[in-house]
Amino acid sequence: MLTNCIKDLKLFIHPKVVTMLFLGFSAGIPILLIFSTLGLWLNEAGIAKSAITYFSWAALGYSFKFVWAPLVDRLPIPALTHMLGRRRAWMLLSQVSIMGAIVLMSSVDPQDGIASLEVLAYGAVLLGFASATQDIVIDAFRIESAEADKQSLLSATYIAGYRIGMLVAGAGGLFIASELGSTKEHYSYAAWSSTYVFMAFVMLIGVVTTLLVSEPDTNKSETEYSTSDYARFFLLFLTVVAGFIFSFLLTTDFVKVAQAFVDETLNNKYLSGFLIGTVRFAFALFIAYLVAKILISLRLVNQTMVNNTYVDPVKDFFNRYGKEAALLLLAVIGLYRTSDIVLGVVANIFYQDIGFTKIEIATVAKTFGLFMTIAGGFLGGFMAIKVGVFRVLFLGALLSSLTNLLFIVLANIGNDITWLYITIAMDNLSAGLAGAAFVAFLSSLTNIQFTAVQYAIFSSLMTLLPKIFGGYSGTVVEQFGYENFFILTTIIGLPVLWLVWQCKNYVK
User: Fold this and answer.
1) pTM of the model
2) CA angle, 235 as apex, 120 and 249 as ends, to 5°?
């Protein structure tokens, strides 16, 4: 028995596994600089909660990364691809872009007015885009680096590194801002600016790892296209993005008129804002799709390249599982994380509003919470090996929903450090367990012939609805209060249990 334990522990110090620890760290740094750390910065600067949670939409790049994942998968980067290889070249480019976006965010004070908030929003969007690109490459790198039976170990180590990165950006960011003199009562832009500049430098750990590791050795066949094909394909992507942005901006005046009418009709500005925003977003997506369809029909891009890049990965997934099973699996992917992501958008603001200081939040929610998440991740990884991914996936969904009820207890008790520890312990342990099983589940659905694209589609779908709903979480809290909000996040997690159970025949 002791020999088996030693053998299991040795698996975690394998070079490929250790590499994922550092790459996970690099992936974990940016996310909180868009979510909770940025939320506390804006909260101290006096920005309204409804506006703060809208900033979480800057991370929608994670939810639409499947759109440009084929570019990352197929397009070479001049000079860099030749020097570093396909995966490492894109990894390095994304990491440098992340550093630039963080520095841009640090350069403006949100208290200076709408113009400064807009620059901060642009920086956050760039950070989300660059960070999502890094995730695309790291996910492909991980799946191509080891066999399927080792993916749960790589997933657990990746999550551990990811959570450590989140600790540095979360707890570390709060400690730095506090030590430099920023509080809710006495806001200091200089403190927050310095904190973000420090985070940009921390990303050098990811850069060094990228330069030191080797490119994955895969048998994936490569289709060579001409420079013209690549250029036109990239132009297609830029044109589609431009169509989306232009249609979104074009509807600005119409949205104001429509929202005023719907406000008057429904007598609910929050509901009308949600409905009009959803319609506007759907219209922009439709225009982007229409632009792409027209350009492809005019043969302005290589049709074979488009098929190989976008169509074939999707067809492969539906061919392997069949339409009914494929749609069921996609439903599980799209809804599994809804409960905890929606709650997570306002968690730090909630802690601060009931009286906890940034130091207490950093110590308990971030530092202690990190270790509980890592413990849950390793527990989930080992359990997935021993009892199978399905059982851990179901258990994770159940615990992720039920632990939200602890936040109701904390809301009633108020500033009680013991209950904060209890809530964070249970919530993060369940999140780590569910996360390890879920990453292994997504990896098992991926065909290595379409690694980057398929996994990007899965992980994009995983966060799309939760982040859209999360953007309205501040509005829900303002209208209904924290307790009702936590009840809602518990309820929306229950249907996931039924969906996961229906997938028992497709998950080992």
Assistant:
1) 0.69
2) 40
